[in-house]
Write a structure and sequence with these properties.
179 residues; alpha+beta; five-stranded antiparallel β-sheet; 3 helices; 5 strands
Length: 179
């Protein structure tokens, strides 16, 4: 009987230690090179059916003070995609995704269930407000006649206008060509 109690105690300690180790490892920022999302497009699936309310009240990752690309399957990334899709049952092909200090710049193409583009897609700016990711209205950014592509190109001039329109947006969430 003592042997069974001893084995059960050891198993419980190992399980608890394993959970703590996994949690502490997951919360550390990953310093490994992040894949370039413009080279490796990824698809994001809805987390719920279109009739269920969208769950977007997920806190940014502990690395929020550093620019990062949320990993596929992470709650942060899922909350961002859910904010983009609203109540629509669509997937996204992600071309660019960077998050920093509660701001996110993401460039996606919406896909149907068979993986075909349903619309042109494009970039979006999101802000983490009141516990939820919120899609910001890029039409508020002043147009520049010398930069007709606007958000589609994210030129240095456009990025400056975004940062003026939405104070606090970090420059490092935009694609490198906009620097």
């Amino acid at each position: 009987m003592r042997f069974i109690v001893f084995i059960t105690t050891i198993a419980a300690v190992v399980i608890i230690a394993g959970c703590s180790l996994a949690k502490s490892t997951a919360s550390k920022p990953n310093n490994a090179a992040q894949p370039n999302n413009s080279q490796v497009a990824q698809t994001e699936q809805p987390s719920s059916s279109p009739n269920q309310p969208v769950q977007t009240d997920v806190l940014p990752s502990p690395a929020q003070d550093e620019v990062h690309t949320p990993e596929m399957g992470s709650s942060e990334r899922q909350a961002i995609m859910d904010a983009l899709r609203g109540n629509e049952d669509i997937r996204f092909q992600v071309h660019h995704l960077k998050v920093h200090n509660g701001w996110c710049w993401v460039d996606t193409t919406p896909l149907d269930k068979s993986g075909h583009a349903t619309a042109e897609g494009g970039p979006n700016l999101l802000h983490f407000e009141n516990g939820k990711w919120k899609v910001m209205d890029l039409s508020k950014v002043p147009e520049d006649p010398n930069d007709p592509l606007g958000a589609e190109d994210a030129s240095p001039a456009y990025v400056r206008n975004v940062m003026k329109t939405f104070p606090g947006v970090p420059k490092d969430i935009f694609p490198k060509s906009s620097s």
